[in-house]
């Protein structure tokens, strides 16, 4: 009866190397490990930073497991950013797929 709109999603292995990756996790999660070249905008800052998100290219949105990023994709699409795609499984699937990661806290990159 009540269906949620379909959120476009892609697996970690299908994200192009040169993709715009928007990481919406919290600061501590980002510091522990993230994709090189990703752009960090915590989920709660998204409404105030819509202008920082490109509308002219695909934007792959990532969190830890895909829940928060799915909500962000829905919000962005409702605000005219139609080229947003959820990273299915989040950074956990990114790490499991062997995709590159870096950390900001001096430790080995990890997903927390």
How would you describe this structure to a colleague?
The chain has 112 residues and is α/β, with parallel strands linked by helices. The protein is built from three helices and five strands. A five-stranded parallel sheet has the order 1-5-4-2-3. The longest helix is centred in the middle third of the chain and has 12 residues, at 67-78. The radius of gyration is 13 Å and the shape is globular. The N and C termini lie far apart (36 Å). The mean pLDDT is 95.
Task: Compose a concise summary of this entry.
This protein is α/β, with parallel strands linked by helices. It contains 3 helices and 5 strands; from the N terminus they run E-E-H-E-E-H-E-H.
Features:
112 residues; alpha/beta; 5-stranded parallel beta sheet; 3 helices; 22% helix
Span between N and C termini? 36 Å
Shape: globular
**Low-confidence residue ranges:** none
Sheet with the most strands: spatial strand order: 1-5-4-2-3
Work out the helicity level. 10-25%
State Rg.
13 Å
Can you summarize the main beta sheet?
5 strands, parallel
Number of helices: 3
Strand content: 5-15%
Structural class: alpha/beta
SSE order, as H and E?
Answer: EEHEEHEH
Tell me how many strands there are: 5
Mean pLDDT: 95
Describe how the helices and strands are arranged.
Blueprint: E1 9-10, E2 20-23, H1 27-32, E3 39-40, E4 59-62, H2 67-78, E5 84-87, H3 90-96
Parallel strand pairs: 1-5, 2-3, 2-4, 4-5
């Amino acid at each position: 009866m009540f269906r949620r709109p379909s959120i476009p999603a892609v697996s970690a292995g299908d994200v192009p190397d040169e993709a715009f990756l928007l990481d919406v996790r919290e600061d501590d999660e980002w510091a522990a490990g993230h994709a090189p070249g990703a752009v960090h905008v915590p989920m709660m800052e998204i409404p105030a930073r819509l202008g920082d998100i490109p509308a002219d290219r695909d934007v792959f949105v990532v969190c830890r497991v895909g829940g928060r990023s799915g909500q962000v994709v829905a919000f962005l699409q409702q605000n005219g950013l139609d080229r947003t795609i959820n990273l299915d499984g989040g950074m956990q699937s990114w790490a499991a797929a062997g995709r590159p990661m870096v950390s900001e806290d001096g430790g080995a990159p990890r997903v927390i």
